[in-house]
Amino acid sequence: MPKKVDHEARRREISEALWRITGSRGLDAASLRDVAAEAGISLGRLQHYFRTRDEMLIFALRHINQLAADRIRARIEALAEEPTPREVLRACLTGMLPLDDNSRIGVLVGAAYYARAVHDATLRAEARNGIPQLGAFFADQLRRAAERGELPPERATEDQAMLLISVADGLASYVLLEVHEPQAAVRLLDLHLANLFGDAVEGQAPAGE
Predict the structure, then answer these.
(1) pTM for the complete prediction?
(2) Which fold has domain 64-201?
């Protein structure tokens, strides 16, 4: 019997070849021919899975975003049985930082996508797709914290949720640029959370890594 090919797995493998090129040479260097060579397949075989470069870029962006979401979910599941909203937020936010090789390549590739997305309407729409949902999730955690008396109610807002995302994105960029070491970025993130939560968490030790 002919060997059954897992098309979705092969598309993920091609995406990972794209990421390797992007991580070392930038997204503009990732032509279909170059990605095919990196993946160890012919250009014709690659085009069996992706007809165009844009189709490949969109799939690869969705795949790397899913891996990031899985990594953050694993951080949350590793917390206590009923984590506090602050612990959930911290797990999400630290999961957005490049703290190890896997998260670093994810942030690096994401940065390359975002730079290209500024001038590419299709890629821009895809890149910003998950931000409103993440903001809503963070805002819900802030509201839960306020209901539990852990956060001043006036700080449980959509604006504060978006500021949390912006802080994490900025710190991630600074780690890539080597402005901050990874642990310095975590310390600054904890400082921002302490300032946000105010006196209700004064003296509380930051959750462990």
Answers:
(1) 0.81
(2) Tetracycline Repressor; domain 2 (1.10.357)
